[in-house]
Design goal:
With 191 residues, the protein is of the alpha/beta class. It has helices at residues 2-5, 23-32, 45-51, 70-79, 113-149, 152-156, 159-182; strands spanning 15-20, 38-43, 58-61, 85-90, 105-108. The protein is elongated, with a radius of gyration of 20 Å.
Length: 191
């Protein structure tokens, strides 16, 4: 199971911040995650606000905590423009207010190991997918510029252009594989 959940080695181990005011639950969630993850626990919303920074790929966040709620932590993540995925892990049943929350998933306690690890795996895989789509789009745009500005003869004889086309083909395959894994119906970038 560790291989399924491991972060992309290109970006190092996944970093997860668990913000939970119930110590036993936070410890249990941390124990659910693979050992090769960098996992930190913040005991409640106040500690979460102090700990939050750009280093985290994913935040597992309780919604109902004393003093500083999960919603307040979400507002801070948005205000600080932090680039992380957020999964609410809470005993609060969802209502229509979740539509406007900056979250990627919502799990209602009690949460099983399988539910938590699948959510973490999927959200990290979604980040990898988005990164690959961005890379692919950038490379396709560069190819388009060269195809407009250079002659067919110049393009045909250029090893850098050949390399760019190979990289595009490899990225297209990676994006397709990740989309299949994530069950995303997307034809990828069209640039």
């Amino acid at each position: 199971m560790t291989d399924e959940l491991s972060a992309d080695s290109e970006h190092g181990p996944a970093s997860v911040l668990i913000i939970e005011d119930e110590t036993e639950l936070a410890d249990m969630y941390a124990a659910y995650l693979p050992d090769d993850y960098d996992v930190e626990i913040a005991d409640g919303g106040e500690a979460g606000l102090e700990t939050l920074d750009d280093e985290y790929d994913l935040v597992l966040l309780d919604r109902r905590m004393p003093v500083v709620s999960g919603n307040e932590v979400l507002a801070a993540i948005e205000k600080r423009n932090l680039d992380c995925r957020v999964a609410m892990v809470t005993a609060v049943n969802p209502d229509f207010d979740i539509i406007d929350l900056r979250i990627d998933d919502y799990l209602v306690k009690p949460v099983t190991r399988a539910e938590l690890t699948e959510t973490v795996r999927r959200l990290l895989k979604l980040d990898e997918y988005n990164d690959r789509v961005n890379d692919l789009t950038s490379k396709k745009l560069k190819r388009n510029v060269l195809e407009v500005e250079k002659t067919q003869a110049e393009l045909a004889d250029n090893p850098e252009f050949e390399r760019l086309n190979r990289e595009i083909a490899d990225l297209e395959q990676e994006v397709d594989e990740l989309a299949t894994e994530l069950d995303i119906e997307d034809d990828g970038p069209t640039a």
